[in-house]
């Protein structure tokens, strides 16, 4: 059997590759190894502004189970072929399902989609990598379990393991997903199976309830890294509150971001507002409402501030739109609601309640996300510029008004220089904010792709100069982003890589880590 | 008060540990449409597909290749047979009633 794949892992001959593929087929079954170019098409689709060739895979292997993964590791070590694990593979705008480097074999874990356990008393779940948020949602509904989880916007098609492993975020009080994970199972490059935390003890029943275990806590090194293949993850679920009150507060001016952040931070830190608050700019809300860009701006260049003002007026969208919720009983929410009303009144914000939200698709999908109800409403973003190009620029900011305004202005200026709009939001952790900007461009136009690449590059380096680092980054910029974090951290990562994966077979290059 | 209400709300299931463990599979193409496609294609995000008699091969191709911002879907997510069923249903469906 001759390989039909034109793409090969670096330094591997076609003959050796064929041998490796044959061994992989023997492990997972013929139909679960793909090498035909046509069959691999879904893995090639990316939104980043680089050519598909740069991230083209050589094959896909789809194991079902830990034991198969252990055997795949053996083959990878034997032939020195790198494998790039994905879970649900919907890392859209961060690299999608394509590997970080050309020629890697994607290890697609989507078939491993078992919800292994849900403990309704302790409010925990143990899931495999292929489980989607939609699947988990349906499962909880079906079993009439009043438990909520936190999910990212592409929730219907993405999943908790892949999202957590890339340290993604969601919108309920459990929005910082890694923080609310508890216990992992990891297949290491040498085939050993590590269970983190309490899971390391054979007969422990506390794996999903106590994160730390004894000695160093290792979970963190398996996120945004390539030290192992995560095959199970524990996660905490939230009891559905008797009363949930989502709301939006709209503000009229772009510079209002300062007072918004100053007013909200104390409420967030004190957990009066318990969830990951979002402060979304007009141009994030507009496409999801939906509003058409062409109705307000034609021709090249970024949309003008006047046009943005007009959108706000025409469609009842704020310059900033704050999304948050109260999660409690009627009594506690009534009490806290008074605080929210006072804060909105004191800062010149207009409150929109659930009842008043009808008719806006943007408000609808946000309110659903704040209770962990899957949807894909945020994909409306891509109708703004069209052409399917997207790359997330996502620096971390202190939750301080002056800082957020400074970051917003810096980003807006650089984006405009390249003709792109500021489509941004701040997702409030406790003391930090993820400043997430969707750099939208038309991927069907080579010149726009080049500009988008150059724009991200300038954003990255300008922000780094000011001491602002990324919370997460796409695979095309992994190396450059890693470089902004300095040499010592990278050296330690390299030493860990050498110790855990001396043949450099798990996702070399991911987050800039390679031998 | 809060604790009591919560206890009431979880009371009926309090002893339940659900051990699933079975591999999930799509029931049919209709379920895929409802749980994936519909979120965009009946929500002003992507174009409406129903009632247009779109060719089945075209639907299957777009699902596998993606199209501009529409993500591509792998066989590990939607197997070929189920995808064919999705395409058949969408292609043969009546138009979606306007809200
Ligand atoms: C419109 C839109 C809105 C978005 N909103 C959000 C949002 O609100 N929050 C957010 O966090 N993201 C968001 N994203 C980005 C992204 O789509 C999600 O984070 C998504 O959850 C990631 O894809 P996934 O869950 O399928 O993970 P995967 O793609 O499966 O995994 C992500 C990466 O983690 C690594 N990995 C995955 N599984 C394993 C494993 N088992 N072992 C070792 N390494 C592994 C791989 O490097 C992989 O590429 C958004 C994207 C779009 C297009």
Summarize the structure.
The complex is a heterodimer of chains A (515) and B (99). With 515 residues, chain A is of the alpha+beta class. Helices cover 32% and strands 18% of the residues of chain A.
Give a written overview of the molecule.
The complex is a heterodimer of chains A (515) and B (99). With 515 residues, chain A is of the alpha+beta class. Chain A is built from 14 helices and 19 strands. In chain A, strands 12, 13, 14, 15, 16, 17, 18 and 19 form an 8-stranded antiparallel beta sheet that branches. In chain A, strands 5-6-10-8-9 form a 5-stranded antiparallel beta sheet. In chain A, strands 1-2-4-3 form a 4-stranded mixed beta sheet. Chain B contains 4 helices and 1 strand, in the order αβααα. In chain B, helix 3 packs across helix 4. The longest helix of chain B is centred in the middle third of the chain and has 13 residues. The termini of chain B are far apart. Classes of the chains: A alpha+beta (515), B mainly alpha (99). Strand 5 of chain A pairs antiparallel with strand 1 of chain B, so a sheet runs across the interface.
Low-pLDDT regions of chain B = 1-15
Largest beta-sheet characterization of chain B = none
Which small-molecule species are bound to the chains here? flavin-adenine dinucleotide
| Gyration radius from CA atoms of chain B, angstroms | 19 Å
Sheet with most strands of chain A:
8 strands, antiparallel
Binned, the helix content of chain B reads: 40-55%
Order of helices and strands of chain B: HEHHH
Q: C-alpha Rg of chain A, in Å?
A: 23 Å
* Mean pLDDT metric of chain B: 85
Strand proportion of chain A: 15-25%
What gross morphology of chain A would you assign?
A: globular
Number of helices of chain B: 4
Shape of chain B: globular
Counting DSSP E segments of at least 2 residues, the number of strands of chain A comes to 19
What level of helicity do the residues of chain A show? Answer: 25-40%
Please give the alpha-carbon distance between the first and last residues of chain A.
32 Å
> Biggest interface between protein chains, with counts per chain?
A-B, 66 and 41 residues
């Amino acid at each position: 059997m001759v390989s039909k794949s034109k793409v090969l892992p670096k330094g591997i001959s076609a003959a050796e590759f064929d041998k490796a593929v044959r061994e992989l087929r023997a492990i997972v079954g013929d139909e679960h190894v793909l090498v035909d170019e046509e069959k691999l098409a879904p893995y090639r689709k990316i939104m980043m502004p680089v050519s598909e060739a740069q991230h083209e895979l050589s094959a896909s292997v789809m194991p079902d189970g830990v034991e198969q993964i252990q055997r795949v590791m053996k083959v990878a070590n034997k032939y020195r072929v790198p494998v790039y694990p994905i879970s649900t593979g919907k890392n859209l705008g961060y690299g999608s399902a394509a590997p970080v480097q050309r020629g890697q074999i994607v290890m697609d874990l989507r078939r491993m989609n078992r919800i292994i356990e849900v403990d309704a008393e302790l409010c925990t779940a143990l899931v495999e990598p292929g489980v989607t948020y939609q699947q988990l949602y349906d499962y909880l509904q079906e079993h009439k379990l009043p438990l909520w989880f936190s999910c990212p916007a592409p929730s219907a098609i993405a999943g908790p393991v892949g999202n957590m492993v890339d340290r993604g975020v969601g919108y309920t009080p459990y929005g910082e997903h890694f923080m609310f994970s508890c216990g992992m199972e990891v297949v290491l490059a040498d085939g050993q199976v590590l269970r983190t935390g309490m899971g390391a003890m054979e007969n422990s029943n506390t794996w999903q309830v106590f994160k730390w275990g004894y000695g160093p806590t290792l979970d963190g090194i398996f996120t945004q890294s390539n030290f192992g293949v995560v095959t199970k993850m524990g996660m905490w679920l939230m009891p559905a509150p008797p009363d949930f009150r989502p709301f939006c507060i709209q503000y009229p001016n772009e510079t209002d971001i300062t007072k918004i952040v100053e007013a909200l931070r104390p409420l967030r830190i004190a957990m009066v507002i318990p969830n990951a608050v979002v402060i979304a700019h007009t141009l994030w809300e507009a496409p999801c409402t939906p509003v058409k860009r062409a109705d307000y701006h034609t021709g090249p260049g970024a949309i003008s501030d006047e046009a943005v003002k007009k959108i706000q007026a025409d469609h009842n969208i704020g310059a900033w739109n704050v999304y948050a919720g109260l999660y409690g009983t009627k009594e506690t929410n009534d009490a806290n609601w008074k605080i929210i009303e006072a804060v909105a009144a004191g800062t010149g914000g207009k409150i929109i309640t659930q009842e008043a939200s009808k008719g806006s698709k943007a408000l609808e999908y946000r309110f659903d996300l704040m209770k962990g109800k899957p949807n894909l409403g945020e994909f409306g973003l891509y109708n703004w510029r069209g052409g399917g190009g997207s790359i997330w620029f996502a620096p971390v900011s202190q939750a301080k008004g002056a800082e957020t305004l400074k970051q917003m202005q810096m980003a807006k200026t650089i984006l405009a220089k390249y003709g792109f709009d500021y489509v941004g939001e701040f997702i409030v952790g406790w003391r930090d904010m993820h400043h997430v900007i969707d750099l939208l461009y038309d991927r069907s136009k080579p010149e726009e792709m080049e500009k988008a690449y150059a724009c991200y590059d300038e954003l990255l380096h300008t922000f780094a100069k000011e001491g602002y680092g990324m919370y997460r980054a796409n695979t095309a910029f992994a190396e450059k982003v890693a470089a902004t974090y300095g040499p010592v951290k990278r050296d330690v990562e390299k030493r860990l890589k050498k110790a855990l994966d001396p043949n450099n077979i798990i996702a070399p290059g991911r987050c800039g880590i390679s031998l | 008060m809060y604790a009591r209400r919560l206890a009431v709300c979880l009371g009926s299931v309090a002893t339940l540990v659900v051990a699933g463990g079975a591999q999930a599979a799509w029931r049919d193409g209709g379920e895929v449409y409802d749980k994936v496609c519909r979120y965009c294609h009946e929500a002003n995000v992507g174009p409406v597909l129903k009632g247009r008699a779109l060719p089945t091969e075209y639907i299957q191709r777009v699902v596998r290749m993606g199209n501009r911002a529409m993500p591509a879907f792998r066989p590990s997510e939607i197997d070929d047979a189920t995808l064919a069923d999705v395409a058949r249903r969408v292609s043969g469906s009546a138009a979606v009633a306007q809200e």
